[in-house]
Specification:
The chain has 473 residues and is an alpha/beta fold. Helices cover 34% and strands 21% of the residues. It is built from 13 helices and 19 strands. The strands form five sheets. The protein has a seven-stranded parallel beta sheet, sandwiched between helices. The chain has a six-stranded antiparallel beta sheet with strand order 14-19-18-17-16-15. A hairpin with a 2-residue loop joins β15 and β16. The termini are far apart.
Length: 473
């Protein structure tokens, strides 16, 4: 049995490819920064091992097995920072390369971006630099370069969805005419697994794209067609990259950091160089419209496996989710409420469905106002929603919260705030001895944090009291 190292296992691509690798009979070693974010119980197999590795910290790389046959490099820091992600990506690649050279790995597979233009965005320059670093190793490198990836939960898909479904008339920048070659996430996974330990692909790079070359305006209009919506798009020359980034940030669910990097990339044409890799691997390329329809099928069936929001967006989370499970008490303010429940199963189901389309059960207008205020100060806002409206697991995003602990057997859900705050906040739901315990905890940062807590106390009285009653109803 071949052993495969999978980096970025909790990311958008990593979560998609893992079940496919296991189904194909590989033994998979997943590298994660925080083991608490990885739900091993979701995979009923003995061929899966999870290790904690931070590729920015060389000391953590010792846990990577020496007897691996191949490794996937699926690490990027595009949403981490608008300034230093290039340095972070280069450091991670260098550390990865040095450790893999010490193993028995025959092949490294790297998913990059199409870089066939002389003038590249920072994002694509960084991808090119990473490829150069990985290519200097003593193993065989196979690089797959993709443009826009279309699939449920992908950043590009969710941004286009937000624009099309919320704006009947769009005022857009002139570079909306920039050409690109989108590819379905299903095809990306087929390419990644198809080149695995395939000697025909060793020491080669391939551009991968769908069968159509479209500009961004055509993509928006085709998306609208699938959704049976009439949309008007007006291009104006005054939309600078900075204005476009702010516009994208306020209208869609993306973060500002990611919006800046995406806008810079969207100014560059991304068209795949022709090759026969899809024929060699027997891959049927899906059109953009087919990819969009397939994505909505997944959404309708509550089968969205991964989302761009799975990436952590708060610096406090970098130290690990396990560090936040123990909710502090000293120096904190708390809003504690308790109510007896008549049907624990129904109450638990409501808790597990909270947020997203279900809302927060009480004073949703105030929750939306809080989300809008968060967006104004550069926060994530409420638009991230959730992947699945009935199931949730540790590490996932839930509106402007992050799930720190979710255990249905223990009847406990713990959330950590990723909104902009002068402090840290937790929200916990737990059913115990026939009663629902709801606790909001806030650890203030200085005087501003204390002022903030007392200023929102009247709203807490309305929101939290109404919410617990609705949950227990």
């Amino acid at each position: 049995m071949k052993k495969i190292l999978l980096t970025g296992a909790t990311g958008y691509i990593g979560k998609r490819i893992l079940p496919v690798l296991l189904e194909k009979g590989f033994e998979v070693v997943c590298c994660v920064r925080d083991r608490q974010r990885f739900d091993v119980s979701a995979y009923k197999t003995e061929n899966l091992k999870v290790i904690e590795v931070d590729f920015l910290n060389n000391k953590t790389l010792a846990g990577i097995p020496d007897d691996i046959d191949a490794a996937f490099f699926l690490i990027h820091s595009m949403s981490a920072s608008t300034g230093n992600f290039e340095k972070l990506e280069a450091t991670a690649a260098e550390n990865f390369k040095n450790r893999i050279e010490q193993t028995k790995a025959k092949q490294v597979i790297y998913l990059s971006g199409i870089i066939n233009e002389e003038k590249l965005s920072k994002h694509l320059k960084s991808r090119k630099r990473v490829e150069e670093i990985l290519n200097s190793g003593n193993y065989k490198l196979t690089t797959l370069r993709a443009g826009i990836i279309v699939g449920s939960g992908s950043a590009s898909f969710e941004i286009i969805r937000d624009l099309v479904e919320k704006l009947p008339v769009m005022i857009a920048p002139k570079w909306l005419k920039t050409k690109t070659q989108p590819i379905a996430i299903r095809n990306v996974i087929e390419f990644l697994t198809g080149v695995l330990l395939n000697e025909q692909t060793y020491n080669q790079s391939f551009d991968i794209g769908g069968p159509e070359v479209l500009n961004y305006k055509e993509m928006l209009l085709q998306f609208a067609k699938v959704r049976k919506l009439e949309r008007t798009i007006i291009s104006v020359p005054v939309m600078t990259p900075k204005l476009s980034s702010y516009w994208l940030y306020f209208v869609t669910s993306t973060s500002y950091k990611l919006a800046v990097n995406l806008v810079n990339s969207m100014k560059v044409e991304v068209i795949a160089r022709k090759n026969d890799l899809h024929k060699i691997l027997g891959i049927n390329l899906l059109t953009y419209e087919e990819a969009v329809r397939l994505a909505f099928d997944q959404i309708a069936q509550q089968e969205v496996i991964s989302s761009w929001t799975d990436a952590l967006s708060t610096g406090n989370l970098a130290k690990g989710i396990s560090q936040l499970i123990e909710v502090p008490v000293y120096g904190c303010f708390q809003d504690k409420r308790k109510i007896m429940v008549h049907d624990e199963y129904k109450t638990l189901s409501r808790i597990w469905s909270i947020g997203g389309e279900s809302g927060w059960y009480y004073a949703n207008a105030l929750w939306r106002l809080r989300g809008f205020a968060d967006k104004l100060v550069g926060g994530v806002g409420l638009r991230r929603g959730r992947k699945n409206q009935k199931e949730i697991s540790t590490g996932e995003s839930l509106d402007f919260w992050r799930v720190i602990y979710a255990n249905r057997t223990e009847k406990r859900l713990l959330l950590y705030a990723e909104m902009r705050l002068p402090g840290e906040a937790w929200l916990e739901f737990k059913i115990e001895n026939g009663a629902l315990h709801q606790t909001a905890t806030f650890r203030p940062l200085g005087l501003l944090g204390r002022i903030y807590w007392y200023s929102v106390m009247p709203f807490h009285g309305i929101i939290f009291n109404g919410m617990i009653k609705k949950l227990a109803q």
